[in-house]
């Protein structure tokens, strides 16, 4: 059975060599990212984001990070990076949602490109709500 586990900030270094290649996939399509894998590690260590690992048979098969964004009407659990193989199942999604709900979240969100958005919809039930566009000044 696959299981979702939280990695405490003080233990990030014990798993980082395993999870950073999985999480770095989220940043590979950007030539000049405003935020990269090194920034993510600092945010996890400082407690601004939470690192989750998905394990199967005591082996890490995937990882994701999450931060909270507070709005007037909602507390959003925002998935900031995700990677791994065959890690999203009904059970792992339920564990993610239960943790987010227990921490006050009313929604789960992730930024995604079109192909990723389709997978988020199929695997997690997330629906596209907006497109983000930007220009460097």
Essential attributes:
137 residues; alpha+beta; 28% strand
Please write out the topology.
Elements: E1 2-7, H1 12-24, H2 37-45, E2 50-56, E3 59-70, E4 75-84, H3 90-102, E5 107-110, H4 114-124
Parallel strand pairs: 4-5
Antiparallel strand pairs: 1-2, 2-3, 3-4
Describe the structure.
The protein is an alpha+beta fold. The chain has helices spanning 12-24, 37-45, 90-102, 114-124; strands at residues 2-7, 50-56, 59-70, 75-84, 107-110. It is 34% helix and 28% strand. The N and C termini lie far apart (48 Å). The model has no long low-confidence stretch (mean pLDDT 89).
Structural class: alpha+beta
Biggest sheet layout: 5 strands, mixed
Rough outline:
globular
Q: For the residues shown, what is the average pLDDT?
A: 89
Computed CA radius of gyration, to the nearest angstrom: 15 Å
N- to C-terminal distance: 48 Å
Strand order of the largest sheet: 1-2-3-4-5
**H/I helix tally:** 4
The helix/strand series, from N terminus to C terminus, equals EHHEEEHEH
State the helical fraction.
Answer: 25-40%
β-strand number? 5
Strand content: 25-35%
Q: Briefly, what is this?
A:
This protein is of the alpha+beta class. 34% of the residues lie in helices and 28% in strands. The protein is globular.
């Amino acid at each position: 059975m696959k299981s979702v586990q939280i990695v405490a900030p003080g233990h990030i270094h014990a798993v980082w060599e395993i999870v950073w290649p999985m999480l770095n996939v989220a940043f590979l399509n950007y030539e000049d990212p405003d935020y990269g894998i090194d920034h993510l590690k600092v945010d996890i260590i400082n407690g601004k984001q939470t690192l989750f690992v998905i394990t199967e048979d005591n082996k890490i098969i995937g990882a994701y990070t999450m931060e909270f964004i507070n709005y007037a009407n909602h507390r959003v659990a925002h998935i900031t990076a995700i990677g791994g193989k065959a890690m999203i199942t009904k059970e792992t999604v339920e564990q993610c949602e239960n943790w987010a709900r227990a921490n006050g979240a009313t929604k789960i969100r992730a930024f995604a490109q079109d192909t990723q958005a389709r997978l988020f919809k199929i695997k997690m039930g997330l629906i596209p709500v907006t497109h983000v566009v930007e220009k460097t000044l």
